[in-house]
């Protein structure tokens, strides 16, 4: 707020203490800052600034009597006895100032704890009061309703609506966000020492601290306005902006935060003006009576705040329901989803359409969004040199398998995994059983792979990936969600990836399983994403993070997630283990300096039936060979079994074979 200093030659302007000058008061620095910003923005416009506010009581009384609007109110003035019995009315103070009394409708007539005595303001002072209540840095540039409520605590005039860390003791509990800085050692130690319980809000559930989130929105708007006016020294006024929010009555509760905590109003700019005009000093109150009265006021204020909050919530719900419609979606329907714009958290736009995978409740759904998560780091290409297109016919399928194939094709079409094609290339498909009994659709790329130029990018060794973990105390394992399907294909690769079914020809839009160089491409992708990340190991789509301290492990995880976000990759949380002492990684249990075989695999080896032919024996040796490092001299121990696989030897199971 910029105020023009009085001209000493102007006889109409009182001098000395009669003028409301911020200089020389605790507003001095803030006022100098505001005045400088106002005049720097537009010197010509500010040449004629609002006159200084005269805070002389006799001058106020004269202006009240001369004001045309207030003259009408003087006819309805009540006596002191009459005004004490009615909730709203006008009366004269002992010093002759016209006042207005307003009592809350739910407060009894004999109670004065929620009664406001407002000065009736003449027309010439109203602009300055609004300026102090709204434009001043300690006012916060709040909205119409909040500014009005602040003014009504001290002042009133006809048609008012148209003119427009701890001081409260240690808390028992502190609720905060789930960011790492709230959980770090120093902050947690201080709270623990002071006996304060920490409660973190749920991730992606802002409703757990909805009032605070709404307050942040209001505070941001106030700071934007203040920073616009005080671009160079905006940080000096943050305390004043926060003061403004605490002094202003809340729309939901009906009380300001200061009143709910202290049980009385604090001395802000508006109350300071009111005290200047009302020179009558209040009568002294006994300390015991004051404390008793304060407790009673706090209790009643809390009750009224709860009632007002319920009414406000009901009013907001009705207002929201007027424009809202009940919508329900069924599984399989396609919907548009409002998602934040990447890199711009304050913006959002509709994406889709996406298919509804599952309905959880009346308002919560699981949406399939596979098309959103394709990396842009690299594309998979297939180089076949000068080879001619290879055309193959589809394999024959029985009716039950054909129905499975059709469902898989429909799913991949809906999610953009494949698309119809007219390519001269075609490879057949087949169904491979999974561990859970279902079947996986696979493409037979053997002939395509025979003419594909080999990618020389190395695949890491299993033993090296496991040995790197060492004595790490904290281990996290992540599995990428259908990792191959997150890698797009080049135009040439799409034509070569075409496969054929009894119902048509389809081209892959993303990297399929079974292609010769697919593991090398995905390994190259993960090496690019995780390059320079300490304590990180990758094997195709399996990623492991390991460290010796919890704090460094959290930092690793945060960095890893940021890299995944930048690369537009998605992990499968159902197959991931976060922050554990040991995890199952590449068929082994690793962590804490130990490497153990997987219990389920060991039980499968024990329960394997006695082989009856060479083929079954090869299966058994394949299972045991995976864990050969846990068996000293494995080759010597298994020699009776490997000798049976020789072509010249007949398959004859002996006691030595059983011992081996």
Automatic annotation (TrEMBL):
PROSITE patterns: INTEGRASE, RT_POL. Residues 413-590 form the Reverse transcriptase domain. It holds the Pfam family RVT_1. CDD domains: RT_LTR (cd01647). One of its GO terms (biological process) is DNA integration. This is Reverse transcriptase domain-containing protein. It comes from Stichopus japonicus. InterPro entries: DNA/RNA_pol_sf, Integrase_cat-core, Integrase_H2C2, Integrase_p58-like_C, Retrovirus_Pol_polyprotein, Rev_trsase/Diguanyl_cyclase, RNaseH-like_sf, RNaseH_sf. One of its GO terms (molecular function) is nucleic acid binding. Residues 160-265 form the Integrase catalytic domain.
